[in-house]
Amino acid sequence: MGSIPVLESNAPQVVGHSDLSSIFTPKRKLSVICIGAGASGLLLAYKIQRHFDDFLLQIFEKNPAVSGTWYENRYPGCACDVPSHNYTWSFEPKTDWSANYASSGEIYDYFKGFSDRHGLDEYIKLRHQVVGARWDDMEAQWHVQVNDLEKDQVTVHKAEILVNASGILNSWRFPPIPGIKSFKGPLIHSAAWPREEVDFAGKTVGLIGNGSSGIQILPAIKDQVGNLVTFIREATWVAPPLGGDYQAYSKEDKEKFKSDGEMHLTMRKAIEAQSNSMFGIFHRGSREQSELRRYMLGRMQERLQNKNLEKVLIPEWSVGCRRLTPGTNYLESLSDSKVQTVYGEIIEITPTGVICDDGKGEYSVDVLICATGFDTTFKPRFPVHGARGAKLEEMWKDEPQAYLGLAVDHCPNYFFTLGPNCPIGNGPVLISIEAEVEYIIKMLSKFQKENVRSFEVRRGAVREFNQWVQSWMKDTIWAEACRSWYKAGSASGKILALWPGSTLHYLEALREPRWEDWKFDYTPGRNKFAYLGNGHSTVEALGGDLSYYIRNHDDSPIDPVLQRTVEKDK
Q: Which Gene3D superfamilies match (predicted)?
């Protein structure tokens, strides 16, 4: 019998045990840079602080305050169209909302209070804007260029992990209309509203846009102006408030919310369940869509009471193809004697007014408000240079392809929140951010516990996921011919800003990482199983219960997908 050949191994021959601790003991401080201190950035800080002991976290925020979009957007009437008691983190309710719908200022206070309560300010540098990021493969770190806006001085900061939590609705822009820079009166964008009060008394005000902000601005300023001309390019479905008409809460209401936690929780869950139950409307030809369309048509006709306005405002496409926006008093305001509705494409802005394609000449205005939204292309606002010479701005030049709305290939140790094809319009959004951040925490836990050098989502996983998304979208109302920021402002392009399923579906998809979709790299020369340590468990090292697994019944979790059961409280 011949001798057995000895095969060469690439594994390190010397492991070394002298410095080993118990299993999963991290060998370094976790270093993270986060871009943005809006809702996502604040939640990330809270979760890192909760889950890790040894970490260095830096959050760079361009604004002079936290809260992101709720700091920036202060236009008249600015409010959240989600019932206030459900525009909170799932685990941290607020009992003293002033009404069932909250203003932007009140939501800013909630997130600022969240930051204060949990001591998150120590990680945040305000008035610091990220202007570039580059992955260094030799160091396995991100080099992040940050401009101190007070000093106008750029410095480079390094971290193993980079999280872009700047969001999608944060880069406003004026519409590319010929002559817009020639306008001589006040030119205002809804997302950059002046901090000082704007005087509309006796003036003719032009309002471009009938999206979410335009629908809120018009009734809020109508009584302040001399006249108002609203320029509408497209029809849109305007819904009644999702949680009923506006209702201010009394002192007694707030005290009851605070004293009766179970009642408050039951109310919050009922509102959330109602929102989650509506996903069927997005399926083309569904009974839910037909019933909703019939209801919406009747409500809009009832509120408009104007056949001419009905013709230009009520769409042919399905309810929800473009983001469905609740509008308190918007439709009624269009029939006000002060308000003139102009339907058509704006072809030019002059020093004194607006010219449309209706052949009626110039509409003279003293003030021009552009409620025209944001750059929703998902392209980064600064250069992001990943591994192997990749440039994210070039990778996403024509179409942003991401993985589960939170990662992209060629960018190791890099995450973003509310990225391409996340459920930004599928249902409740804050819980989606929670799911993304929890997913990131799971990845960072593996990174630390197993002393991973870098991780990167596989290109094949990104490609196949995006193929699935676009194939699935064909049977939804979002694929109809309506111009929407879900499709980067086009009427027939790919759907880039929505998840292929419900919000609950997204939560389930992100519950556990699919490790096979990721590539993990370890420090050369170090055995990847060194995390096993000195042979002792965490329980032994920390002095815990040494018989924790002994019990009187089997309480191990059962997969509801395989058993087709759902625990009522899960």
A: FAD/NAD(P)-binding domain
